[in-house]
Structure formats: structure tokens, C-alpha cells
Design brief:
DNA polymerase, domain 1, Rossmann fold, two-stranded antiparallel ribbon, P-loop_NTPase, RAD51A
Length: about 170
């Protein structure tokens, strides 16, 4: 974001952007103009000037274009990870998509952790079949991750314990 000085943006304005958590030109392009106008000392005209300066500094940071074929090819790389339930897979359109974030929420005891444990294991199935990477990040905000449960689920799906270790080891 400091490169904006060369494009005529004051150091004070850059400092205000940084205080607001805008550290790069790419982030600047992704923030709404309303959020930018809410920054102390920024008005509609100043925001427009800063965005214009940013486009001079990095014309490609704000927008990316791709052809329909490129978009289709990107979608073809997406795999579906089984939830372990045909009914739930159907709701998800064949399973949980790779390359995206899927948030599951609900009341205590509704099966969220069970589903995440199962997904952590079924993602490994791809690796064993040679068609995927099988990498999982399990973000456990409730401290409910149970390696023993992972082992039980791995046995159910006949997943090699050496592959599951990627999920259970720190």
C-alpha cells in the first residue's frame, strides 16, 4: 500500500488505510467504498482519488478476467468429498466441494463434529485413489476433535491409518 505515495496519495492517508487494516492494493480494491468513506478524514472524492491512484500502481489487483472455458476448466478441478451419508451428499449436490470453505453450524449434539470427523477421513479416500491431495484443516473451536473417533471412522471407510495421521498428528 506504501506504493500509493508515488501515485500521489499522502502518507497520512496511507497511514489511515493501514489503521483500517488495508495493507495491500489488492485489499483496497476489495473493500467497499462505503467502508473506505467511513475511514476518518475520507470522503467520496478522496476515496475516488485513492482508488484511481491504486489502479495506476497495480492495474491488475482489483479485477481478474477469465474466459468461459477457463472458468469451466477451473470448475472441473473441483472434487466432491463424501459426507458418509447419501442423503446429506444429495443435499450438498454430491458432497462437500474442495477448494472452498464450508461452514456447518447448529445446536450442541446435532452431529457437526461427527460430520467434520467423517469429512476429515473421507478426504483421504481421494489420496488413496490417486486423484486428489487429501489435505484437511480441522478448525476446532469447541475442543471436540477426537483422534480415537477418527480411527474408528477410518476403519469404517477402510482408510490406511498412515494417511489418517495427516489429520491427527500436529
Amino acid at each position: 500500500i506504501e506504493r500509493l505515495v508515488k501515485a500521489g496519495v499522502s502518507a497520512a492517508d496511507i497511514q489511515q488505510l493501514q489503521k483500517a487494516g488495508i495493507a495491500t492494493v489488492g485489499i483496497l480494491f476489495r473493500v467497499t467504498t462505503k467502508i473506505l468513506r467511513d475511514i476518518r478524514g475520507f470522503n467520496k472524492a478522496k476515496v475516488a482519488t485513492i482508488l484511481q491512484a491504486a489502479s495506476k500502481v497495480d492495474s491488475k489487483a482489483g479485477v481478474t478476467f477469465q474466459s468461459g472455458i477457463e472458468a469451466r476448466n477451473g470448475r472441473m478441478k473441483i472434487m466432491k468429498i463424501s459426507t458418509g451419508s447419501d442423503a446429506l451428499n444429495s443435499i450438498f449436490g454430491g458432497g462437500v466441494e474442495t477448494g472452498s470453505i464450508t461452514e456447518i453450524h447448529g445446536e450442541f449434539g446435532m452431529g457437526k463434529t461427527q460430520m467434520m470427523h467423517t469429512l476429515a477421513v473421507t478426504a483421504q479416500l481421494r489420496m488413496q485413489n490417486g486423484s486428489g491431495g487429501g489435505r484437511v484443516i480441522f478448525m476446532d473451536t469447541d475442543n471436540t476433535f477426537t483422534p480415537e473417533r477418527i480411527k474408528t471412522i477410518a476403519d469404517r471407510f477402510d482408510v490406511d491409518g498412515h494417511e489418517v495421521r495427516h489429520v491427527t498428528e500436529p
